[in-house]
Design brief:
Blueprint lengths: L12 H8 L3 E5 L5 E12 L17 H4 L5 E6 L3 E7 L8 E9 L20 H7 L17 E4 L3 H8 L5 E4 L13 E4 L9
Antiparallel strand pairs: 1-2, 1-6, 2-5, 2-8, 3-4, 4-5, 7-8
The chain binds a DNA duplex (12 and 12 nucleotides) through strand 3, strand 4 and helix 3.
Length: about 200
DNA sequence: TACGGGATCTGT
DNA sequence: CAGATCCCGTAA
């Protein structure tokens, strides 16, 4: 499908987050192998939002969020898992969309799974990064074809499914945060088995 | 320089 | 519901 460019992402994260549902994340491994998955769950983080890593001020870790849209922001959580964000909005506006879950098209070799658990391999931000071999080395990298990661627009079928409402999105509150827990900036595709939590 | 908490996940 | 495990933000 058509690659998503930075200008499409140059909007407030609570606008971009639902628009990213149904789009595809593509991961090109150093081996040349390509992994693809449909984005089925996102969360928005924005200025004035106490849950946002850039809420207090610019630091070495969150610097990329302050920059132009279209870059990755990867961080380590609980010393164990990585989480992947897409930087959004205008240069100087610190905001991002957390990619929380993917419906993978193919399961990577290094993941052991039963057919029953297939849909759950990238159900959650930490599992997603493990499945796509994403770590801190992939932060502050532009999403673009030829790069380690890029994004693609919805296929005509998926777009039509949203318009016909055979695919519906649910908006709710974000997961795992203590501050700003009441802000409803999480979106997911209704009924999708790859969503982290319903 | 030291300290403690975190946008998670799994197994008990 | 506790534990794993490490980076980084904050305070000193």
């Amino acid at each position: 499908m058509q690659p998503i460019d930075a200008s499409w992402l140059e909007r407030p994260s609570p606008i971009v987050a639902p628009d990213l549902l149904g789009c595809t994340l593509v991961r090109q491994l150093p081996t040349g192998q390509t992994l693809r998955g449909m984005i089925v769950e996102t969360e928005a983080y924005a200025p004035g939002d106490p849950a946002c890593h850039a809420y207090r001020r610019r630091t070495a870790r969150n610097a990329v969020m302050f920059g132009p849209s279209g870059f990755s922001y990867v961080y380590l959580i609980y010393g164990v898992y990585h989480c992947l964000n897409v930087v959004t909005d205008l240069d100087g506006v610190a905001s991002a969309v957390l990619i929380r879950a993917l419906q993978l098209e193919t399961i990577p070799d290094w993941i052991e799974t039963t057919p029953k658990q297939r849909d759950r391999v990238a159900a959650g931000p930490g599992k997603l990064c493990r499945a796509l071999d994403i770590d801190l080395s992939l932060t502050a990298i532009p999403f673009a074809p030829g790069q380690p990661m890029w994004l693609e627009h919805r296929s005509p079928d998926v777009q039509e499914a949203f318009e016909q409402q055979s695919l519906a999105m649910v908006q709710t509150t974000r997961i795992g945060i203590t501050q700003g827990a009441d802000i409803p900036w999480r979106w997911y595709i209704e009924g999708c088995r790859a969503v982290s939590k319903v």
